[in-house]
Every structure is written in structure tokens, then in C-alpha cells.
Design brief:
The structure is a homodimer. Chain A is an alpha/beta fold. The first copy, chain A, has 12 helices and 15 strands. At the A-B interface, strand 12, helix 9 and strand 13 of A face strand 14, helix 9 and strand 15 of B.
Chain lengths: 349, 349
């Protein structure tokens, strides 16, 4: 048996078979999905390694889930057997609070239920994610995937896609806006695609040289090397919007200088302490810095429909589940263009 | 002669008479003002002490200026001899750029001209502020003061007033909103008055106990002691808007926790590096932190008219110019309720 470090890290390795953890019976509003593909998100690794504390083992990661409906409860309205569907970062929420009523289940005031490592009200234990053969999810949290899209490449839209689409939509990025996407990884490459599809003039902002060709292929109009003070100065005060996908601690000040008066930079990557910000970076020019977290279910469906209409998918590298440990090592070295997707058939073989 | 440290700090003390620095002749669009009162702003001290670098000596501070028009140029349209007028932090700007066209001269792309220590295009030297007998200013930068207000108490509206009014107006604070005003000094006491007049439920947020009575007199409905973790927790996620007037380096995270989803905290005080912010403080709840700098001339006039209509002025302590050094010492110890105003008649005696 292959020991999967992914499944519980060093503290709790296990064999592949345990990934097929038992799922609940299909309740009236439930949908049972045969998982075909599952994307590998950096959050999976953080949870496996207990970086954010609170990880419950065994961890079955995976919240970029694609599959086909294999059965539905008798109160399921909009889905049927055979439908191509997706499940993202959430599988439940209270559906009564002000956030849920505003279609922002990710901010549920009673706590949204994460697709893995969340508090499962059915089992009383914790939820298990998409590195598995199947999953049972309430219909409200099951998305419909446009059939014209390449199924394998759709998986990362459920997390990386909505994480970058939502702020562009919420802050109303439009045709002709000058938009900077900071960081070229799983999130950044989707940010470029969406901003380009929205008609923006897209500038890929990165510390590393040599990414120009790739960035332009994704839809960037320009590449700005953030280490080049002279180039940064040329772009000073010129951006309508900045999407900051950097996943680690960094200095915000040089990026804030790039914003126009009254413009906003949105953080989607760094859920950790940042380097000290200068008050003047915001006060001079009445600038804003904000955060954004995935997106609500309604907006996730809108994003998927937008992808269907514009033929947008993720750039992926396919792996078998047996290669998950190597994939994790490579994600941590940013050595993937731009998202690993697991062919879940490999778990069945 | 009294040596005034205010006037050039240790590097360049001077006597009172030198404050009556020569002013330019009255040009066609100029207004000459006999200064009656001038507020003492913390910026005056920063400039005198060269804290922000770039101070040019001799410094004549003062950008909360009240006075009467004594003469006008032949192209002056809306002001005449005898009018009660004010001058705030700016005396010029390019009036052609996008910021100026948007009535936001404070963000003039070619650089607004500060009332003191700014680059004076007329003299070729630097500008001199309101600790003086008179001043000559282009009519565009001269505000009309409602005659029903107490003249002495109006001076601080020109800086502390507009600095706090502008963000409340720009972020559309309205009746019933729960608004927190952080810090009770020159800025904070005006923030409370304005938020109260706008119909908000106002919470004064302060580190120090014992300010409850004063805060309530100013219009606060509640006082929240930021050092009390239990109290802070009770108010978590409940504020529609936070006006942060703290003038020094501080930790933003505890305040960001107080904001509702999608709400904003605006910095108006700390033009300096802040303590590290946690990305999650913004990402969880899609919160924003922004900055705001005084206000444009049009909005400053709106603020003064609002004050006229609601009978709002500053709480002041009157001093003679001969006591300026002691006043500076007390400002630095936050020992003033809430703004010193100099009776400029004392310079004439």
C-alpha cells in the first residue's frame, strides 16, 4: 500500500483505501456524486500539515471537486442522475443568517461548513473532502458545470476560480480598467484570465523575471517586475484595481503606490500577518485595501456560467492519487503550471 | 522679546514680530484676510520639529485660520470686505488635473500647496501660515463661515473638522448606522459630533478609562474601552463604520474585528508605519481599511454649512501667542480639550 503523507501528514499517514471514507445515506435534499477529478489547493497542504491549527485527522482534503450525479434525494429540484457537477469549499451553512440571505454563505454568521475538516452536523464528526471516490452534498452546495468545458480543467474553478472572480465582480472591474494581478500561481493565473475576459488592460505583477511569455499567453497585456524600482515608479498611481494573490507575508506598501486615487487592492492569498503598512500609503490618495474569501454559491454558479460563455478553464497538470506526495512537494516550491488535478479514477484502480 | 520655539524649533527660534512675515500684494483673484483666530494642529508641531523632514525655516505654522476680509482683488466674485472667512490646509493647487476637476484639491496630481511650508509660486519661496496678523489667499481656497457660529470655536473645523467630516460623508454614514470613533483628541471629538449629527449610534473607542462623561457630552451613545478584551468581543462584527483617529503607530487587528461584513475602517491620523496587520482580518468578512486626507474645498464649504445648520463647533481652549510653547508641550501630552486656538489679537498687542 502507498502511504499518503497528504492524508494526515506525518502525524497520521494512511493507505489509499481509507480515502473512501463512508458517506452518509442520501437524504431528501442530497446529491450523491461520483468524483471524477479533484484539484489540489495549497489549503489542502496547510490542513494536512495543521499549519492553521485545528486540523482533525484523518484529513481527506480536496475542495475542487468535479463529478457526475449518481443519485438524488426525492426533494432535489435542479439536478438529476448523470449531470456534470462541482463542489467547492463549502458543503453547508445555516441558510438563515444575514450573510446566507445575502448569498454569501462563506461568511455565514453561524459558521459555514468546510468541504473537509468542517463540523459535520450529520455525522457529528468532521467532513471529508474530494480525494475520494464519492461525496454526498446538499443540493444547495452543488454547482452545475457547463458541458462545453473540459471537465479536467474545471476542477480548480471551484476554489482558485471563484476566489479571483469574486473580487473582480464585487469591485466591478470593467472594460478598459487597468488591473494588476500580483503573483502568478494557481490564483494569479485565473485572475489574469478573468480580468482579460472582462476587457481590462491586465498587468501581471511578479517578483520573478522570465514569466512574460506565460503571462501573455494567459491574457496579460504587460508584465511588471516588482523588484525593478524604476519600472514600479513608471506605473505609480495608474491602477484602477489590484488583485493580490501572494500567499505569504509580504510588504504591501510598494503595491499601494501603484493604485490610482480612490482605488482598491484586494488580498485573496495571505491569511497571515503581513509586513507593517504605512498609514500614508492609504491616506494619500484615499486608497483602500480589502480582503475577499472565495464567493457565495450563487456567485460561484455565475462564475461557472461566465466560464462556459467565455470558454475559460484552468491550466492543469494531471496526476494520479499515487503521486500526491510529490505533487505537494512541488506545490510548496510553486513548481506547477498552474494547478494539479487528481484523476480520481486512479483511486479505483 | 519672547522666543517662540514653535517658530522654527531649536534650530531657528525667533521673536514674535517675525511672525508678521510680509504677504504678497493682493492679485486680481486674491483675498486679504485679517486673522482673528488660528487653531493649533499637531501637524504644526511635526513641521516645527521637522518630524516629517523637508521643513523650511522660518516656519510660520497654522492652517486653521479664521478672520475677516480686509481687501479683495478686482476679479474676486463671492467675497467682500468684512466677510467672516476661513482658510484650511491648502492655499493653492493646479486646478487642471483630474483630482482638482473632481474637487479633491488635496490630491492634486501636481501637488497641492500647503498653507505653510508649501512651495509658493508667487514668492518662489515657501508659504507662511496663520500664526500671523494677516494672509493673502486666492479666493478659491477661502471658505465662507456661517455667521451664527462662535468664531473662536470655528477655527479647528478647517482641519480637524474636515478631516473627520469627509470620510463620514464619503463612506455615506447615515441615520441608524453603528459608528465607532477611535481616539478622543482634536480629531476624535469632532468625529463624535459629526457622526452624532448624522444620526448614527456613536461608540467612542478609547484605551483610557474615565472619558465616558466627556464622550457622552460630545454626543457618544456608548464608550468602549479597547483594552477590555471581553467588551471588545461583545462588539465584534457589529460596526458599520470605524473612524480611526489614532495619530501614532498601533495595532489595527483588534479594531478590524469590530467591523461588520463589508464594512470599512478609515485611517485619518496615523501617517506613519503601523503594526503588522493580519491578512485574515480583512479576508474574513470582506472588510476594508482605507485612508482619508482632509477634504476638497467644495466639501469643506459643505462641512461648514452643515456645521452652521447643526450648530456644530469645536471645543477649544483659548491661548495667547505668548503661550504657544506651553500649548505645544500640552498637545504632545494630549492635555487639551480638545483644541488650542490662538487669539491673534495677542500678536498685535
Amino acid at each position: 500500500m502507498t502511504e499518503i503523507k497528504a492524508y494526515g501528514a506525518e502525524t497520521n499517514t494512511s493507505d489509499l483505501k481509507e480515502m473512501n471514507i463512508e458517506r452518509r445515506e442520501v437524504l431528501p435534499t442530497d446529491v450523491k456524486i461520483k468524483i471524477t477529478y479533484c484539484g489540489v489547493c495549497h489549503s489542502d497542504i496547510h490542513t494536512v500539515k495543521n499549519d492553521w491549527k485545528g486540523s482533525k485527522y484523518p484529513v481527506v482534503p480536496g475542495h475542487e471537486i468535479i463529478g457526475r450525479v449518481i443519485s438524488v434525494g426525492n426533494k432535489v429540484t435542479h439536478l438529476k442522475e448523470g449531470d456534470l457537477v462541482g463542489v467547492g469549499c463549502m458543503v453547508d451553512s445555516c441558510r438563515e443568517c444575514s450573510a446566507c440571505n445575502d448569498n454569501l454563505e462563506q461568511f455565514c454568521e453561524n459558521g459555514m461548513v468546510g468541504t473537509y475538516n468542517g463540523k459535520d452536523k450529520h455525522s457529528g464528526g468532521h467532513t471529508f473532502g474530494g480525494y475520494s471516490e464519492s461525496i454526498v452534498v446538499d443540493q444547495h452546495f452543488v454547482l452545475t458545470i457547463p458541458e462545453n468545458l473540459n471537465e479536467k480543467e474545471v476542477a480548480p474553478l471551484l476554489c482558485a476560480g471563484i476566489t479571483t472572480y469574486s473580487p473582480l465582480a464585487h469591485w466591478k472591474v470593467k472594460k478598459g480598467d487597468k488591473v494588476g494581478v500580483i503573483g502568478l500561481g494557481g490564483l494569479g493565473h485565473m485572475g489574469i484570465k478573468f480580468a482579460h475576459a472582462l476587457g481590462a488592460h491586465v498587468v501581471m505583477i511578479t517578483r520573478s523575471e522570465g514569466k512574460e511569455k506565460d503571462a501573455k499567453k494567459l491574457g496579460a497585456d504587460e508584465v511588471l517586475i516588482s523588484k525593478d524600482a524604476e519600472e514600479m515608479n513608471k506605473h505609480k498611481g495608474s491602477f484602477d484595481f489590484l488583485l493580490n494573490t501572494i500567499p505569504v507575508k509580504h510588504d504591501l506598501n510598494p503595491y499601494l503606490q501603484l493604485l490610482k486615487r480612490d482605488a482598491t487592492m484586494v488580498l485573496v492569498g495571505a491569511i497571515e500577518p503581513l509586513e507593517p503598512m504605512h498609514g500614508g500609503s492609504l491616506i494619500i490618495g484615499r486608497k483602500s485595501i480589502a480582503g475577499s474569501l472565495i464567493g457565495g454559491i450563487k456567485e460561484t454558479q455565475e462564475m461557472l456560467d461566465f466560464c462556459g460563455a467565455h470558454n475559460i478553464t484552468s491550466d492543469v497538470e494531471m496526476i494520479d492519487i499515487q503521486n500526491i506526495n510529490e505533487a505537494y512537494d512541488r506545490v510548496q516550491k510553486s513548481d506547477v503550471k498552474y494547478r494539479f488535478v487528481i484523476d480520481m479514477e486512479s483511486l479505483r484502480s
